[in-house]
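To: structure subgroup
Subject: Chain for Friday's discussion

All,

I'm putting the inputs and outputs inline so they're searchable in the archive.
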Amino acid sequence: MLKLKNITKNYGQVQALKDVSLTFRDTEFVSILGQSGSGKTTLLNIVGGLDRYTYGDLIIDGQSTETYTDKQWDAYRNSSVGFVFQSYNLIPHLTVLQNVELSMKLSGIGKQEAHKRAEEALIKVGLHDQINKKPNQMSGGQMQRVAIARALVNDPDIILADEPTGALDSKTSVVVMDLLKEISKEKLVIMVTHNAELAHTYSSRIVEFLDGEMVSDSNPVSNDIEEESNHKQVMTAMPYRTALTLSGRNLWAKKGRTILTSIAGSIGIIGIALVLALSTGLSNTIKTMQEETLASSPITIEQTAMDYGMAMNPNISNPGESYPDSTSINVYDPMEGYEAKKNVITADYIEYVRKLDPNLYISIQESTGVSMNWITQKGSNYELVQTGQDGVGELLNNDDFNNRQYDVIAGKMPTNQNEIVVVVDEYNRIPKQSQRILGLEGESFDATSIVGKEYKLIEHNDFYQETAMGIFPPANTSQYETLFNSDTATTLTVSGVLRKSEASSVSMYNPGLYYTEALSKDFATRARQSNVVAKQLEVKDLYSVVSGQPIANANPFMDSEQVYNEVLASLGGSDVATKLAIIPKDFETKSQIRDYLDAYNQGREKPDQITYTDMSEIMTNIMDTMVNTISYVLIGFSSISLVVSSFMIGIITYVSVIERTKEIGVLRSLGARKKDISRVFNAETFLIGLVSGTFGIVVTYLLQFPINAVVYDLTGAQNIANLSINHALILIAISITLTFIAGFIPSKMAAKKDPVVALRSE
């Protein structure tokens, strides 16, 4: 039983209902008559739980509603009340069947059961053959019957009809009224109407209102009847799937706008995705280069190790404001950030390095730093070649590696220490510096013309002659011919010309002239016994016996002791290696070698630690830093468009809220919670974000093909644009998150809409 007890409803200063008390039977057809503004629709809205009374009480099955929460009112509308509106209020982007199923989905009924009950309800109203049509494909009478089916499908106790025939012709009105009359045999039907004739024809009870007051009741209920409270409610909750379905169908109904919105929203995603694709591709290219090429670049240990990484630290020095107004002049150290570490390379350390697992490296080169003096003949002239200069280097002491990685295009590999080789690049080229060293002229020449060319190795005692001042200056050009033809000179012969094999991924030698390790060690042994070395050991670090210049402060990077050691080493005065070069087999073994070298330093004081240099790692770090910096800048610019598109989506969501105001009212009348309304619009922004993000990622993957093709044609680099799956998924998630945030405020606005006002909107 439904009872209104002293109900008063105020709208500001206006009293829409004045102390109305009215009791309804469980089964009857009640018509409420009255002029416009008499309060009859307000009464219907209060009975239906769409509006709240100001004073009084609405009693449902013996239970007061004074303390009802929003959730309880939502559950009441869903399970106890069915609405039939004058304007039908069907959701246009849903089919007839889906409109009828909607209230059941809010009450948690399963898909199959909801489908079955919706079909049964449509059969009752004679529309079983229309279930897949959209509302705009039906007549007014058919749409009103759909509304009745929707009202009946949840088996409510009360059917509320607000001018159900107001928009229908007389013939169709009779059909609708017959349906309501039949329903009233099992349920309470309350109809608001202006049509007194229809009311008297079909109603079992007529209640008349005037100026907010009940003025007559043709069949009142005795107020002495008391009823026990047995009203039970099932709380409503719209499943996420239903919210997604509603939003998805709405977006599909407006697919033109949805497509344009998604494209606009995807622009920022495309920009960021392309930046990440290029960043990933460049990083992979750098990594591949490191693994295939730089992996075999040596790890070097020298007496003086420079920490280049410190110089790249932007926090090392802050120069302050550029173009200052003051006349103050500041002093700075241009070498700040370059840290020179003195390594004390001992025989014990060299022995430690020699114990390195042979499976990890191709070769370990031990150099005493001695500079050999070669003289070559170029026509009638003689020129000096020193092994410390560019274009002259030492072959790895690994014949197997040399034979596998390099092809002999003329002559043969060296078989003794007095044979040297020329190395050309993959294009059979040598730099001009090497051409000068070889004593050759012209832009091209045959490789066989190089084979057999001779150089003379001059001993220190012949090359450095002591003067009366106790200085040992090197021989001058006028002495080269005599030294070249002296009996003490050792003849060195070019035995062959080498080129990196096509199958080799490692290029250990730059184009130039290369000698054997055996030659270097043999010469160093004799150099240590020379007069110039003996004199340098005698004067120590006072001055260089070759130049006569003081050693102190000769090099800003190093102290005088370090300079002295280098001078002595270049003359061959060091009895231990001053430089070690470890050539790893591959990228993985290089890492293991670094770990082995690091293990030596564990437990030692910093001055006793040995610092090694891995130029490939330094180069890789520099390139990674550049790529990351550029990526961050480009991502920043792309993010601006992403934020702008998010604002646009927020505005579009707000427009959607305005467009779907009536739908909001319908959903609320069916028992949807405020949270459910928010969920519908959040689902819409979720779908837009998902579509935008996915579209952006698909476009990015498609753009990768022409980008990679163009870059490959220009540079030969493969897969320079390579968006990873992880980045793609993260960007889609970002797109969803941003659109969700953008639509959050409009969705909250939608949830707060008054259902009565929403139902009146057009």
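Points worth raising on Friday:
Residues 311 and 338 are 5 Å apart (CA to CA).
Residues 251-291+621-760 form one domain.

D.
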